[in-house]
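Practice set, problem 2.
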Amino acid sequence: MGGRPVRSVARAEAVAVRSPRPRYAPAASQVARPRTILYTGKGGVGKTSVAAASALRCAGEGLRTVVLSTDPAHSLSDSLGGELGADPTPVRENLWGQEVQAQREMEAHWAEMRRWLGRVLVDRGVMDIAAEELTVPPGMDELFSLLQIKRHVESGEFDVVIVDCAPTGETLRLLSFPEIAQWWLEKVFPLEGRMLAAARPVAKSFFDLDLPGADALDEVHRLVRNLIAMNEILRDRERASIRLVMNPDRMVIREAQRTFTYLNLYGYLTDAVVVNRIFPAELEQGYFGDWRRLQAERLREVEQGFAPVPLLRARYFAAEVVGEEMLERLGDELFGERSPAEVMHDELPREITTGPDGTARVRISVPFAERSEVSLKKVGSELVVSAGRERRTIILPPALARRDPSGARLEDGALEVSFADAGPRSAQP
């Protein structure tokens, strides 16, 4: 940066060939699987800056780091102060940046199925342009982009993979059905070829419909296998974690709580939450005084709602967080003496399971709580757990929000709440 041209990947690889030590060759100390960190959160909270600051700091520690953006509205280039490409582009020593192009990823993973769907829609009278847009289900573009993580993890080129996700948790939910994908792979796919071969003449004669060919089906097979592998990568709690980025605003915190619930539900580790753009102490008086006091209340909500997950804080800087200097300041403030690459918390603070009788159970970490101090109540879709002065507000997934607590017990520093189809409005452990 600083006026230096950013080299292309092709140029970087050419240089690496002449180097005594290949640029992408695994370091002697590198573990079998690199560290993977995903930053997600509501749009506008500064997650791109946080991801870039984390990557810059990891690179400064000597870790070969790639930071990639899967957000269709890329801003990673602006944050790092250089032009990034669709492939990893050198930014500085030990640091590469990438803005994943969803269109290219769709061509790689969904081309045959897209062509078949397009033909079907056009035959049904849908305009060509509209048909092309309708061939990709909502959320699939980001899903295809996230498959780049699998590529980088398996390549052995990097020590750390940092992802600036699109402002939504929906894609993470799409990746959270390995059992279903596995079931399709084992039970349905071995039969579908024979079934389609038998049905193809009937479909053409009676419905004037061409069924997908072998190439399209093979493409679906590969996608399912990739999704299963992707899920395994993200559920490896020793090497992968997700970090939620938020501002101290009520709506943003609520969105983060919902995402947090789903991440726990599907077994993804959240090892830290980041609260960005906190008004500094010098704004205690004057116009921003009330705002700062309100933020202090919201910070207490975050501490109680996400505990025991560590809380990383960054103040609202007087200048825009763009370029290496500001990103380094942000990284210093967030991490202090810690490395962004470390696993900051290694347990799921909440687990949701179901028993053979259909009863669902929510397990919530409440360390050091006494039985007499713990109480709970359900208000709409929220489960409010109080333990002495601490309180956890859990936004339940819709399937549980429709049920009432039927019992609770405190054991080994965790509260386990049972949900049945019908039961009392509240329960005491």
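Problem 2, part (b): a different protein.
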Amino acid sequence: MKKNVNIAIVGLGQIGNYLLNELNNKKKDIELKTGKKIKIVAISAKNMNKKRKYKINKKIFYKNPLEIIKKCNVDILFEAIGLSDKISKKVVELALKNHIHVITPNKALISKHGNYLSKLAEKNKVNLEFEASVAGGIPILRSIKDSLATNKIFKVCGILNGTCNYILSEMEKSGENFSNVLKKAQKLGYAEPGNPKLDLNGFDAFAKVRILSSLSFNKKISSKDCLMEGIENIEYKDINIANQLNYRIKLLGITELINNQLFERVHPSLVKKDTYIGNVNGVMNAVIVHGNPVGESILQGEGAGPGPTSSSLMSDLLSILRGNIKYPFGIPEKKRKIAKVYNKNNYFNSLYLRFEVKDKPGVLAQITKQLAAKKISVERLIQIPDNKKKTASIVIITHKSNEYDAQSCIKSFKFNKNILKKPTLIRLFN
């Protein structure tokens, strides 16, 4: 790469603004460590006049980011808009076609269009870097791509969404219900003030799982449906009962190969208190990589926010400036195969089941009978009566059963008039 490098930033939200400041303040450090001089030649956002922490140079401002690529001599472009389609995709696509390196934290874009964009980057001999798309400041993608490159990875799991981890941790700590803690998370900036749905329903974590799968197993990003659940239905009652059973509830993202078939999933899990992952609290992320010969590798850190995200973006920048032109997913596109997908219905796992029922004789027998009919056996049972309401909570920990039987069983309970609401199902983490 030439000595003087021109940079453009598209998207000036929290991350884009923070990055702009970092680039301006650390030019000397960058030159010292790479031998390259950087210059910001173009920036773009919806609104130039929006109040921002850092001053915007109006001379290099473009409302339409596509004009940057057409009118400016750009070597490296940062995309920080955050959409999976429309202008985000158009900008990245056009940049790659014009032999411009692209760096992005956009996990939605990469998880949906990563296969196509990776092929485009390889064809045009430029980098598509996205370290910041998974786990914020944790260098997990580079670790898999470089440090663990010769290992046979067979499983990756962890806490991939800081918003959900904060909510679950705070519910346990404070004893408050989900809605109250969500409001607190929004005030602190951990959750979107408007619509935090993509965090809460598991989609954010799932997008990251798909990226991890592709890198870990040398496969194309899958487009198949997978097991995905969020934390919206978790109540403090579940957290309290789990605590009594020596568990914590965590939203986990897991990808693994079972009989050389890809099994991706995101869902709340009961995790033993004495495990590493059970003690990752607050907004922290943690990723555990299982491989051979390395064994178990753990990386932990802040998974979101402009600071950690910018740290990963800068890491990608320095990699490009040092001349590391490499395949986006670690291997040539023609070597990345379509993964065979594991049938989730065949997955065996122990379950936490909570039933809210009328407190009357015979109800427990009805429940255990229905479980037995679906080949689900009981390992542990707790009954918590509410004498005032004449109701009871029945909590059952099951032996391992397959996913199909578990879901079929849950559906069957809707016909039981003694069960007051849909049972809560949480899987145990093996």
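Answer key, part (b): Residues 4-104 form a domain with the Rossmann fold fold (CATH 3.40.50.720). The CA atoms of residues 93 and 116 lie 9 Å apart.
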